[in-house]
Each structure stands twice: as C-alpha cells, then as structure tokens.
Amino acid sequence: MNPEGQPAEVVPLQVGRNDGPPGQPGTSTVVEYTTVNIHTEPPPDHIIWSLCCFAHCNPCCLGLAALIYSIKARDKKVAGDLEGARKYGSSARCLNIWSTVLACTMILIFIIILSRSDVTYRPMYYHY
Fold first, then answer.
1. What DSSP line would sit under the chain, residue for residue?
2. At residue 4, what are phi and psi to the nearest 5 degrees?
3. Is 66 buried (19+), middle (13-18) or exposed (0-12) by CB count in 10 A?
4. Which three-class secondary structure state does DSSP give residue 11?
5. Digit-coded pLDDT (tens) for 72-113
6. CA 112 – CA 22 distance, rounded (Å)
C-alpha cells in the first residue's frame, strides 16, 4: 500500500476518525431534519351561494342542483376526501354561475320588455 518510490515510514497514517460530512474533516456528524407543514385549505363548497340561487333565482332548477352538489361537497370535506369535495364544489360553482347568469338575463329581459311596452294599465270596467 506504499506509494511507489517512498518508504513505508514516510507515509502518514490516519490518526483519528473523520465523523463529519465529506469535505469537512474534524466535525461531528449531526443530522438535521426540516419539517415542512403544508396546510391545504379545504376546497370551497359554495353553500351560501347555492342557497341564494335556490331561494331567489332558480331557473331550470339549477339552484336546486347546485345546492345538492354543495351539500355533497361539504359531506366529502367532512369525511376527509378533499379531491371528491373539490370535484363536487367545482360542479356546484359552475351550476351557480349558470343559475345567476340565467336569472340576471331573465330579469334584464323583463325590465326591457316592461320599459318598451306601450300597454298601460287600464281597468276594463271603467266604460264612460
């Protein structure tokens, strides 16, 4: 194990142990752990929006369908199935958007028709 051309007494021996990481001789080995806590927010279930769409503007029963999906999303969230809750919450959100858009469109059309109509309220029982 001697290098060529050198006698055995010239080769230095390893005196102590190297407990440190490579490149840092003489240090003790300390294992450090880093804990990363990732708090995933629970997905929204849009229950309040669904209740408003169901109670006030329920075109084509979209508010009822949105309410059902919101309740399913809340149940999945309580059970711990965040992916299922996210799926049902997304469906409830889509149904709420469609319900709100259709209701606003119907109200706008109703206001336009009332403002453009030439028919005035005249009771039929007043004949002079």
1. -PPTTS-GGGSPPP-S---S-TT-TTPPP----------PPPPP--HHHHHHHHHT--GGGHHHHHHHHHHHHHHHHHHT-HHHHHHHHHHHHHHHHHHHHHHHHHHHHHHHHHHH-------TT---
2. -65, 135
3. buried
4. coil
5. 999 999 999 999 999 999 999 999 999 999 999 999 999 998
6. 80
Residue 123 has pLDDT above 70, yes or no: no
Residue 76's Cβ-count burial label (10 Å; 0-12, 13-18, 19+) is buried
- Per-residue pLDDT band for 126 (boundaries 50, 70, 90) equals low
